[in-house]
Amino acid sequence: MTVSLKAMTYFTTALRHGNIAKAAAELNIAASAVSTAIDQIEAAFGLTPVTRQRSRGIQPTASGIVIARKCAGLLEDYRAIMAEGADLKQSLTGRLRIGYYAPIAPAFLPQILAACLPRDGQVELHLEECDNDTAQDGLLNGKYDAILFVSEDARPSIQFDTLITARPYCLVPAAHRFARQSSVTMAEIAQEPLVVLNRPVAAAYYRGLFDTCAQGPSIAAYANATEMVRSLVSTGHGCAILNMRPRTADSYAGGAVVALPIADPLPALTLSVGYDTARRRRLVQHFVSACRDHFATLGPGQCVVSPADMPGGDV
To answer: Chain-wide mean pLDDT for the chain?
Structure first.
């Protein structure tokens, strides 16, 4: 039989007063509840913790004194843990665990973290790239404090704030004939070999963009990392369609690439930040606010190719 913290509280209060009625008055409960707690202690340990005397209240036995001392220690530890937990919830310290399904997160996540975290080294960062499902699983099971993910595929139980809506764009080598154009159409892209980002959500989305084209694309390569896609494009393996761009026009392979708006009206992908709205630590709140602030000001212009990038275009 287990003993609850409530029973320990009632028991130690009764022994401190030496009287069940006085303990009940302090605790603002019925005297029968205090008596029941004493009975639970007795049943759990198989000992007699107190002697009840009609006129003199209750007296602890030797065993009861030992049990009361242990219970008091446990209750004190419990109160300390709860106080420390409350302090942690309000502090900008501890561990911040972020899962992200955003291949170009290195282009903006360090800036966001620098803007919201204290510089005294009291925060330990854990950043993990993952797929969209794994990010959501990690938030729901407590592995991550916050996630960056594509919210078109959001589960009903995930709470999130939308950060940016990113239209697809075409990526070509700097020497490609498309690079001299202000924009490109899906029909033109379909005539070129295509390098496909083969990630969950992304691959099906990119294939679907060609549904209205008379001719589907010729696939030159599949790659599951954005930087590999960019390097393949920069070295002439084909064109690619992506949604977010880093802040550099150079690939890991050293070649330059050009991002072109696509003239066709196409569905976009939405980058969002997910978090637990019910149990948010102050540190997580700061991170979420910094994400919103970043993309509300400087962020979108850095990583999204929009119709405004075309001559006479509108956002």
So the answer is: 85
